[in-house]
Amino acid sequence: MQKTISFPHMGNYNVPIENMLRHIFAGHKIMTAPNITKRTLELGSKHSPDFVCVPFKYNLGNYIEALESGANVLIQAGGGCRYGYYAEVQEQILRDLGYKFEFVKLMSGKVNPVDLYRVSKRIGTPLSFGRFLYFVLLAIDMVKKLDELEAYIRENVGFEVVEGSLERLHAELLERLKRVDCFKELRAVYKTYGEKIRGVEINKPDDCLKVGIVGELYTLMEPFSNFFLERELAKSRIQVSRFITVTYLLFEKSRMKKKTLKSAGRYLKYELGADGTDSVEKSKTLAEKGYDGMIHVKPFGCIPEINAMPVLQNISRDYKMPILYFSFDSQTSETGIKTRLEAFIDMITMRKEKGV
Ligand code: SF4
Predict the structure, then answer these.
(1) Residue 47 near residue 280, CB atoms below 8 Å
(2) Would the CB of 240 count as within 6 Å of ligand 1?
(3) What are the start-end ranges of the H helices in the chain?
(4) Does 302 sit in the ligand 1 pocket, CB within 6 Å?
(5) At which of 183, 204, 225 does a domain end?
(6) What is the 232 CA–ligand 1 centroid distance (Å)?
(7) Residue whose CB lies within 8 A of the most ligand 1 atoms, among 218, 219, 272, 328, for a mutation test
(8) Strand pairing partners for 7?
(9) Among candidate residues 127, 150, 173, the one where a domain is terminated
């Protein structure tokens, strides 16, 4: 029987994930959950425990909308922190709501290709282990390339001479990546779009405003959940830097654990868990580089980031660098966020003009 397999959103990573699943589960239908809207969050919040962190609510909303659209297999990646317990609770909530589906949690601990293959066999992959691994590695390479190009776009989109050029190329790139079938094709697409994207005319002064964004991974990487913060900053001709990406989380974070803690210096003696240590270390590093401000984002009630906040206040005081704190939940008002952001941008602009 043909299955309809779905998974939740996070930024643009649905593109490599959908590509990978399309190859691994050939013969089945792959369906990215419908795009996130206010309804997604409303549905997720309505059926979630009140106190749970907001990524849980977004994911649950994604699952409900996917089930409504015909999905019958739901994939949950698994992960650390409270995220590691999401799967069981979400599955139970969805079953209590009366949905019939197969629920698959991909990882319980470290990423292990043999375990992933076993789970994929259970869902129905017709591939040998070798071919399975090929498409997993292809998706990983796609994620790396996408992260690299998106970092360039993030830092430069506010300064393009012809407004909308990078956004248009970015959208084209995502569409093209969906159809990639092998490494050779991926390299060609990366080369073509890398050249096109880097070839867009940019007018960026050396002393432009620079802002770093740190915080919890989901609210950092899913633009809907932070009210498109990066786009808003770019509109004010600000260079935006963010370090947390899937590439960083999968390949750099654990390798650099000790180095990150050491680099946080006197601000941290122990790790804060999840992304808290990175929030502190990156804020200190960017303050030393002369950034004009930082924005810290987190879901309401996110413990690792709550722990990071007092340390960030010390960094802000010591380096005289303003830090704006945003806490997101289903009740967060977009107007409130935009007003505070505007005030922050005005403040860092005036500081720059006065040479503070
Ligand atoms: S890092 Fe924060 S938002 Fe993510 S699971 Fe942990 S507590 Fe929840």
Answers:
(1) no
(2) no
(3) 14-24, 38-46, 54-68, 83-96, 113-123, 129-156, 165-178, 183-198, 217-221, 229-235, 246-247, 257-263, 276-288, 303-319, 334-353
(4) yes
(5) 204
(6) 25
(7) 218
(8) 32
(9) 127
Determine if ligand 1 sits within 6 Å of the CB of residue 55. yes
Same domain, residue pair 96 and 165: no
Return the pLDDT at 77: 86
- By the 8 A CB rule, do 278 and 244 touch? yes
Is the pTM here over 0.85, yes or no?
Answer: yes
**244 CB within 6 A, ligand 1:** no
* Cβ of residue 328 lying under 6 Å from some atom of ligand 1: no
Both tokens assigned to 210: 């620079």
Q: Is the CB of 81 under 6 A from ligand 1?
A: yes
The CA-atom distances, in angstroms, between 259 and each of 171, 212, 214, 289 are 36, 20, 18, 18
Ligand 1: residue whose CA is nearest its atom 7:
302
Q: Do residue 119 and residue 156 come from a single domain?
A: no
How many structural domains are present in the chain?
A: 3
Residues recorded for the chain: 356
**Can you name the residues that pair with 326 across neighbouring β-strands?**
297
Output the CA torsion sign for 48, 309, 214, 80. Answer: negative
Smallest Cα–Cα separation from 154: which of 218, 212, 194? 212
**pLDDT of 54 above 90:** yes
Ligand 1 atom nearest the C-alpha of 219 is 3
CB 127 within 8 A of CB 135: yes
Sign of CA dihedral 97, 56, 342, 159: negative
Q: What is the pLDDT of residues 301-334, one digit of tens each?
A: 899 999 999 999 999 999 999 999 999 998 889 9
What is the Cα gyration radius of the chain? 21
